[in-house]
Amino acid sequence: MRDVYLYGTIGSWFYDGNTSSWLLGQLRDCGGEDVTLHINSDGGDVFEAVAMQAAIRAHPGRVTAVVEGLAASAATVVMAAAGECSIVDGSMVMVHDPWSAVQGGAEEMRSTADMLDKIRDSIADAYARKTGMGRDECAALMAEETWMSADEAVAMGFCDRVDTSVTAVAMASRGAMSRYRRCPAGVVEGEPKAPGAPCEAGAKMAPADSEGGTGAEAAPVPAESAGVVVLGGSVYIV
């Protein structure tokens, strides 16, 4: 069994971004061996995540995912491709609608909206395959920006079991999480949540300070990753 670590943001536009070519290289280095894919990521570029998903499915060995802190946004697309997924007690999973930004006239806006609908449906299909839910049900969870505790992620089928041998206590920076509407208390540094407390949607995060957060960050999620990165309206962030 080999170990691969998907820690940090997905996509080459981020300074610590993990790309699909990086993951493909990691899997090739493992030969045909079984792989444990450790995930702690706030998401990133959805097309990079889809390419990662394809690389996982093409790997000759069995790929088992382990959520170790946070699997949010595009990271859940990668997570859903694994043959099995466990989640460390205290970790969280988040799904939401794809985002983008575009500059132009009405036709460019309509075209981008249509593209986002197609991306949403594709992601919902991936979630439906993993969870056994219908596409519409998965799409509704995405529309609500749904945050799940470890137990909730298992109950809803996104993960297969909770690993209680350890407890995740790492938190993401305030800057990295400020772009999400319903980030629960306890995910961001400086907002502790008692172990085992239920997952409840919190208020919208305050904007990050000039440093992108305060204090040392236990989770490798950069403040610089906050916001949407767009090049020519063609990079879609989920």
What can you see in these coordinates?
- The protein is built from 7 helices and 7 strands, in the order E-H-E-H-E-H-E-E-H-H-E-H-E-H.
- Strands 1, 2, 3, 4, 5, 6 and 7 form a 7-stranded mixed β-sheet that branches.
- It has 238 residues and is α/β, with parallel strands linked by helices.
- The protein has helices at residues 20-29, 46-58, 74-79, 106-131, 135-143, 150-155, 174-177; strands at residues 2-7, 35-41, 63-72, 84-89, 92-95, 146-149, 161-167.
- The model is unreliable at 191-238 (pLDDT under 50).
- Helix 3 links the parallel strand 3 and strand 4 (84-89).
- The chain has one domain (2-225): 2-enoyl-CoA Hydratase, Chain A, domain 1.
Q: What is the topological layout?
A:
Elements: E1 2-7, H1 20-29, E2 35-41, H2 46-58, E3 63-72, H3 74-79, E4 84-89, E5 92-95, H4 106-131, H5 135-143, E6 146-149, H6 150-155, E7 161-167, H7 174-177
Parallel strand pairs: 1-2, 2-3, 3-4, 3-5, 4-7
Antiparallel strand pairs: 5-6
Helix pairs in contact: 1-2, 4-5
Throw out a few tags for this protein.
238 residues, 2-enoyl-CoA Hydratase, Chain A, domain 1, 7 helices, disordered C terminus
Describe this structure in a few short sentences.
By secondary structure, the protein is of the alpha/beta class. It is 31% helix and 18% strand. It has one domain: 2-enoyl-CoA Hydratase, Chain A, domain 1 (Alpha-Beta Complex), CATH 3.90.226.10.
Treating each run of at least 4 consecutive H or I residues as one helix, how many helices? 7
What percent strand?
Answer: 15-25%
CATH fold-type name: 2-enoyl-CoA Hydratase, Chain A, domain 1
* Rounded average pLDDT: 79
Backbone CA Rg = 17 Å
Low-confidence stretches are 191-238
